[in-house]
Amino acid sequence: MPIDAAKALAAEPRTGEITWTTKDVQLYHLGIGAGTPATDPDELRYTLESRLHVLPSFATVAGSGAPGVISGLSMPGVEVELAKVLHGGQTLRIHRPIPAEGTATAANRLAAVYDKGKAAILVLRTEVADPDGPLWTNDSQIFVRGEGGWGGDRGPATRLDPPTGDPDRTVERPIREDQALLYRLSGDWNPLHADPEFAKLAGFERPILHGLCTYGITLKAVVDTLLGGDVTRVRGYGTRFAGVVYPGETLRIRMWRQEGSVRVAVSAVERRDAPVLADTIVEHS
Questions:
Q1: 193 assigned to active site
Q2: From the candidates 24, 115, 139, 188, which is the catalytic residue?
Q3: String of b and e for 75-89 (b: at least 16 CB within 10 Å)?
C-alpha cells in the first residue's frame, strides 16, 4: 500500500531551521498580486522595505522550503505519484505577528491520515517558533486520488453551512497570465503550475494557479477591505480548495462579517462563478 498510515503517524517530526528576509516577503506579496497601483500607499506596505508588513499567509512559504503538498509526500510511510495529488485545504493559526525578517525552527509531522474511500487525505502540520516563542501553526490537507479504501478513519466533517444573506462586500481580483510563474519563485516548483504537458498528465487543460496563491490573494482582499489593512488583526485562516483557477481569470471574492471573523466565498468569474475556495473563514481581533 503506497500509504502506510501507522508508519506515517508514528514518524518523528522533521525539524530544521528556516530563514527569511524582506526580499522574500516582497516577492511573496508580488506573487499574490500586491503592488497595483505601484504608488498607492496601501500597496507600498506590501512592497517597500521601509514600510513593510507581513501578510500572515506568507507563513505558507517562509523559508522557501518545499510547501506542505510536496514535503508531505516525502514523509515516512508515504509513497505516491505527484500527478495524483491535489491540495485539499489549508489552515493557519497565527500566534503573533510575523516579522519582516527572521530565523525560526520549523517542525513538520503528519498529524492525521484519513481514508475517504476513493482517496486519502494527509494532514501535514508545521509548527514554527523563534527564540521568543511560537509564531504560527500551519496545517496542509493533501488529497491523494486513488489511495483510499484500506478501512481507516474517515476523519471529521469539515464542511460549514453556507453564509446567509447578501455579502457585506464583494471585490474582484484579476489574475495575471504569468501569476503562477511569479508565485512559484517563492518555493513551490510543482510543474503542474508551469508545464502544459505535466498539467495534461494531471487531468487539466493547461497549468493551473497554485491554490496557496489564491489563498494569499483572498486573505489580502479581506485584510484590505474589512480589517483596515491591519495584518496584525488576523488570528486564524482556513479554507477548502473547491476548484481550480487558470491564470488570466478573475476571482470574485464575497465577504460576510461575523463576530470576530469574516466568512468568505471565492469563485471564477469567467466560468459562471465556479467555486474556487469554500468553507473559508478569517478569524480576527
A1: yes
A2: 188
A3: bebbebeeebbbbbb
